[in-house]
């Protein structure tokens, strides 16, 4: 090639000819790519991405899963059985609920039964000539001192039968230096009655159960009140404290 031709080609490339050739190359490459895609087997076209939905406040509640009861209720027959069970349970609950009167009776039945009020009889028929002093000091004619009189004195001749003032259990039989032979009986309510100044060999012993009016002994000798007329000294105690026997007799 001559120098003139080389210079012409060089000027062509450095001028608009370069761009023309470049455009032809790009067009050829694009056509080749198009033909390759169209002729490729089982071409897979990916879906265009969709924009995410706009969520408004409260929309998430529509997507919560149903409760187990709701899911079961969608099955045939389950909702009916559930309703029947609920009605049956409600009926049983109402039938088991006691009325106020029944509740009061039940509470009363659960309370421990109180012992019947103790009522005594006079151990012997006679005049009560010395009263219970209720803690006040009185002059003892026999001992010559001042002391409380913790019972009552009932006039009676020696040998007069002495009766149990109420039913109970004999919890003591003893001989006392001041009060002679003494029998003690504990009654159902816990009251203790003491019969002082009995004759020897009382007719009951410790552990015996006695009935109301049962003879337990006889009037005998009473050392602490020997200068007084023949009598029975009778005492009562509750919770370890002396009480007036007359407040219990015939009540």
UniProtKB/TrEMBL annotation:
Q: Does the keyword Transmembrane apply?
A: yes
Per the UniProt entry, the signal peptide is none
* Residue spans crossing the bilayer: 18-37
For this protein, the record's SUPFAM superfamilies field holds: Duplicated hybrid motif (SSF51261)
M23ase beta-sheet core domain residues:
148-245
Q: Keywords on this record?
A: Membrane, Transmembrane, Transmembrane helix
Domain of life the protein comes from = Bacteria
Q: Which stretches of sequence are listed as region Disordered?
A: 71-120
A Pfam family that the UniProt record links to this protein: Peptidase_M23
Tell me which InterPro entries the record gives. Answer: Cell_wall_metabolism_enzyme, Dup_hybrid_motif, M23ase_b-sheet_dom
Compositional bias (Low complexity) at which positions?
86-116
Q: Write down the PANTHER family for this protein, in alphabetical order.
A: MUREIN HYDROLASE ACTIVATOR ENVC, PEPTIDASE-RELATED
Protein name in the entry: M23 family metallopeptidase
Species of the source: Yanshouia hominis
């Amino acid at each position: 090639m001559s120098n003139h031709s080389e210079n012409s080609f060089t000027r062509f490339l450095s001028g608009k000819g370069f761009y023309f050739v470049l455009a032809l190359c790009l067009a050829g490459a694009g056509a080749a790519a198009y033909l390759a895609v169209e002729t490729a087997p089982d071409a897979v076209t990916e879906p265009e991405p969709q924009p995410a939905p706009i969520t408004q406040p409260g929309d998430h509640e529509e997507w919560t899963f149903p409760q187990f009861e709701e899911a079961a209720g969608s099955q045939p027959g389950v909702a009916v059985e559930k309703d029947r069970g609920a009605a049956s349970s409600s009926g049983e609950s109402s039938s088991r609920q006691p009325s106020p009167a029944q509740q009061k009776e039940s509470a009363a039945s659960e309370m421990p039964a109180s012992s019947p009020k103790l009522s005594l009889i006079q151990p012997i028929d006679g005049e009560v000539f010395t009263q219970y002093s209720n803690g006040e000091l009185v002059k003892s004619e026999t001992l010559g001192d001042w002391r409380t009189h913790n019972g009552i004195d009932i006039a009676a001749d020696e040998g007069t039968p002495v009766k149990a003032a109420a039913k109970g259990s004999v919890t003591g039989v003893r001989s006392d230096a001041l009060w002679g032979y003494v029998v003690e009986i504990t009654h159902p309510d816990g009251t203790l009655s003491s019969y002082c100044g009995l004759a020897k060999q009382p007719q009951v012993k410790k552990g015996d159960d006695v009935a109301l009016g049962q003879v337990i002994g006889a009037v005998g000798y009473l050392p602490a009140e020997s200068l007084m007329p023949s009598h029975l000294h009778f005492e009562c105690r509750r919770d370890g404290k002396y009480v007036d026997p007359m407040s219990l007799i015939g009540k």
